[in-house]
Amino acid sequence: MKFPGNETSFALLCALAALAGCTSGGSGSSTGSADGGPPVVLSPKGKVLEAAENQADPDAGASKAEAAKSERVDIPGGALVAGSTPGDKGRDPVLEPAELEVKLGDYAIDRYLYPNDPTKPPLTGVSRAKAAELCEQAGGRLCTELEWERACKGPEGTTYAGSASWDAKCAKEPASCASGFGVLGMGAAYREWTASEVLPIEDMQPRAAAVRGAQGSAVGPDHRCAHRTAIDPGASAQDLGFRCCRGAPNAASIPSPQWEQTYRRVELPAKELAEMFASVPALSTLDREITYFKEPDDVNVVLARGDAGAAPQNTVLTTSPLLWNPVPGEQIVVLAGRAAKDSFVVAFYRLPGDRYRIASTLVLKDEKGPIALGFNGYVRKRLFWATCWDCRGESGNVTYRDDGRVVITQK
Known about the structure:
By secondary structure, the protein is mainly beta. Helices cover 10% and strands 26% of the residues. Strands 1, 12, 13, 15, 16, 17 and 18 form a seven-stranded mixed beta sheet that branches. A five-stranded antiparallel beta sheet has the order 14-19-20-21-22. Strands 2-5-11-6 form a four-stranded antiparallel beta sheet, sandwiched between helices. Strand 15 (322-324) and strand 16 form a beta hairpin.
């Protein structure tokens, strides 16, 4: 199995099981053969971000709550970068926007979960409508989800409330953990209703209520300020509470991503690709003279080496880089090429502003290729690579897993 940043020798003889994960797009999904329009022109900007798996975790340490000067916190108006960065651990691209920049006006938010009294436990087990009614009776309103997220991320925009990393002690003592604005227990031990909606995605996500936070037993990444779930507004649970806000409600909201064409050809000059490689440790040692394989000549070479002599029905083979949309809200660039005596298959997460983050790499040492990429427009979560079509040891898969990780395997 290939994980981001690793290399594997092309001479590897053991068989690696191809990961599952192919799904057909619903009736609302756009598929096609990647020939339905002009190529997408990419213009990479800045250094490529390291894969989340290869980044050192920040020092753990929850923020300590200051003495509560009041039971309400004033949040000044300002900018919020909502959501998360593609490739972040725990990110759900269907629900979490990619670095969405919004401006919010000022408002006030309860320091504690309702009833906003540190001597009483949070009220849970009520529907969203009941939560909104109770906030109204208290002279406030249910917070919008972006108000909740800004209060959680604080003025510094931290990943977790008041911290760059998750401290499990916050789940046991939520009142001891404060966001940068001094709001307590956000994302620590309870899920929280918001007044916002998760907008529908055709054949995938019905309209639902937006819920923030996580129960104490949830895995670390679920406690991120950007973590978002979609729940029936009439539901109730013992770990589901709420807090109230005051002031005019902010109208900013999170749009839902929609299905895109599964594969599109892209143009990415080899010179710019070499500059991207230079900032990726697993690729920086490759020769800077990077070239793409030729089409259709090199595709025909790959097919001729295989026993079948032709690609399966509905499968397209190409040497062009591809822009891949495995699920709504996720864009991944997959490409193959040669650097002197080595060949490679690489996948990048595409970030806003034409920035990129490494997703997965496969370097074939002392192999000049050619390599072709193969895809079926109706198979959303998997494509193929090969130097010899469907030959063991000379082909494999590029798979998008359910946890949002991209894995390149050799079979």
